[in-house]
Amino acid sequence: MQPLVSVLLPVYNGEAYLRAAIESVLAQDYPNFEFIIVDNASTDSTPAIIAEYANDLRVRVVRNKKTLPRLENFMKAFSQAAAESKWLKVIGDDDRLLPGCLAEMVRAGKKGKKVGMVSSYYYTGEELIKGVLPTGQEFVEGPVLLHRLLLEPPARSVVHSPASLLISHQAYKELGPIRTDLLHADSELFYRTLNRYNFAFVHKPLTVTGYHSESGQAGSTEKGYTFQEAYLVRYHNLKYYDNLEMTIPELEKVKFNLVNDSTGFMLGRIARGDFKSAWSHLKTIPPATIYHLPLSLAYFTGLAIKKLLRGEKIKSLK
After folding, report:
1. Rounded to an integer, what distance in angstroms lies between the CA atom of residue 166 and that of residue 104?
2. pLDDT at 169 over 90
3. How many Å apart are CA 130 and CA 269, to the nearest integer?
4. Residue 128 falls within a domain, yes or no?
5. Do 247 and 120 lie in a common domain?
6. What does the longest C-alpha to C-alpha distance in the chain come to?
7. End residue of a domain, out of 185, 218, 251
8. How buried is residue 198: exposed, middle or buried, by Cβ count under 10 Å (0-12/13-18/19+)?
9. What is the pLDDT, as a whole number, of residue 286?
10. What domain range is 236 assigned to?
11. pLDDT of residue 222
12. Average pLDDT in the 171-188 region?
C-alpha cells in the first residue's frame, strides 16, 4: 500500500474559496490519504460548506469551541495527523491541489534518501513559478539548497508556502512544532528542515497558492513583517544550521540581501509618503547588518539612473 498522506486544512471564515480547496483535495487520485479539516470556530458559512463533505470517509472534521490564534490552529491541524502517516500536506482555504499532486509528490519523495520536503512548479494566482532547479534535477541535498536560499534571492521561490510543499512527518516530529510567535513560522521551520533533510522536486505545476489582497502573505508583505522576520530565518538562525558551510564573504552577502529587501520596502513606503512605516521598519534592522544600508541605497540609485538613461519611467517600488 502507498504511504499514508495527511492533508491538513486549517480554516477560519473561509467561505469565499473553501469549496474549491476541498474539492481539489477530494479529486486526487492518490489511493491513501486522510483529509483533516480544522475549523477555527468560523462564524460565516464555513461549517455548512464543510458539512457537505462529511459523508466522505476520507474527511475528518475538527471544530474548535472557540477561535484560536491563527498559528495555534495551524499547529493543532498538524497535531491531528495520524501517527502512521508518512507525509503531511498543508492546504489553505484559498489554495488548491492540481490533479495528480499527491501521487507525483510522493513519487518524488521516494526517489531520494532522507527527503524532508518535496516541492514542484506552482501557481501564485495566475503566475506560474518554476523555481531555479534545472530541468531534470529532482533531488538536491538539503544543506546545498539551504546555501542557495540564503545567498540567491530567486532561489527562495523553490520553498514558497506550505501549500506548495509535501513535508515529511518524521522531519516535523523531529524539528517541530512550528513557532506561534512568528507570522512566517512555516518558513522558519522549512529552513531548519533543509539543514537536516534533503529535498525533492517535481518539474510540473501541482498546486495553486492563493495570493490576493486579502491573503495573509499579501498583508504580511504590505506591512513589512515578511522582511522583519527574514532576519531571524536567514541571519539569526545561522547558528542552528550546523550542516551549512559559509565563508565570511558569503555571510556578508546574506546580510546585504536582507538589508536590500528592507531598503526596497522602505523606499516603497517613502514613495507613498508613508514615512512613519519606513522609519518603524528602519528601527527593526539588526545593528549587525545595518552598515550595508549605504551600499543598498547606492544599488537602488544605480537602478534608477539606468532607467533614466534608457528613457524609462521610474515606478514606485512594490
Report:
1. 10
2. yes
3. 30
4. yes
5. no
6. 64
7. 218
8. buried
9. 96
10. 219-309
11. 66
12. 92
Q: Name the residue among 200, 137, 193 with its Cα closest to residue 164.
A: 200
CA-nearest of 121, 133, 137, 14 to 67 is 14
Residue 178 DSSP symbol: P
Instruction: Please check whether residue 197 lies inside any domain of the structure.
Output: yes
Tell which of 168, 201, 218 closes a domain: 218
**141 is a domain residue:** yes
Tell me, what amino acid is at 232? L
Query: Are 241 and 155 within one domain?
Result: no
Residue whose grid cell is 499532486: 101
Q: What does the alpha-carbon distance between residue 222 and residue 53 come to, in Å, rounded to a whole number?
A: 35
Residues 140 and 16 placed together within one structural domain of the fold: yes
Q: pLDDT > 90: what percent of the chain?
A: 83
Band of residue 5 on the pLDDT scale cut at 50, 70, 90: very high
Amino acid at 223: K
Of residues 102, 88, 122, 95, the one with CA closest to residue 18? 95
In a domain, 317, yes or no: no
What is the pairing mode between strands 59-63 and 33-39?
parallel
Reported as a pLDDT band with limits 50, 70 and 90, residue 226 is confident
Whether residue 36 sits in one domain with residue 102: yes
Same domain, 150 and 102: yes
203 in the same domain as 153? yes
So what's the pLDDT on residue 318?
Answer: 45
In this structure, what are the phi and psi dihedrals at residue 161, rounded to the nearest 5 degrees? -140, 165
Burial environment of residue 190 by CB neighbours within 10 A (0 to 12, 13 to 18, 19 or more)? buried
Give the CATH number of the domain where residue 92 resides: 3.90.550.10
The number of folded domains in the chain is 2
Judged on CB neighbours under 10 Å (0-12, 13-18, 19+), 265 is buried
For range 49-61, the mean pLDDT:
96
pLDDT for the residue 84: 96
pLDDT at 273 over 50: yes
